[in-house]
Amino acid sequence: xxxxxxxxxxxxxxxxxCMSACARKQAKRxxxxxxxxxxxxxxxxxxxSISLPFPxxxxxxxxxxxxxxxxxxxxxxxVVILHYTPEVAAQILGKTTVVCKAGTEVHSSDVIQDxxxxxxxxxxxxxxxxxxYQEDRREPTLFRKGAFQDGYVAAVPGTGQLWLTLMTH
Length: 169
Prior knowledge:
By secondary structure, the chain is an alpha+beta fold.
C-alpha cells in the first residue's frame, strides 16, 4: 500500500513537471498557432508553390503557418497580390467561376495587412463595417498547385491587381 502511494505520487509529480515544461515551451514560442513569414517579391519562389496562368508584372506574397505540428496539424495560407495589366487580369478572371458574389454576407473577415495596396485595404475595411463582400470571390482553379487547393481570387478594382488567398487543409 505504501509503495502504491509512493508510485502514484511520483507519477503525479512527473506529470506536473512535464505539463509545466510544455506550458513554458509554448509561452516562449508565443502564438505559434499563426506565424507569418516575411513579405516576398520573389516570383520564382512563388511559382514553385502555385501555378501562374500568365506571368505577372510583379508580385507581393506572404506565407502564414497555421498550427505548429506539435499538438495538431500544420497548415499554410498563402496571400498574394499579383500585378497584371487590367486586360490580363480581366482575361484571368474571365476563366474563373464566382463562388461568392459581392453583397453576400461576410462569414469571416480577412486581415488587413500593412503591405496590401491601399485599394485593397479600403475594400477590406468596408467589408468589416458593412459585413458584406465588396468584390466577387472566385474559384482559384487556375492557381492551384500541390497542397494549396482551397481559397479564392478577387480583383482589386481600378487596378490590374488580383488578390489571391490559397490554403492547405
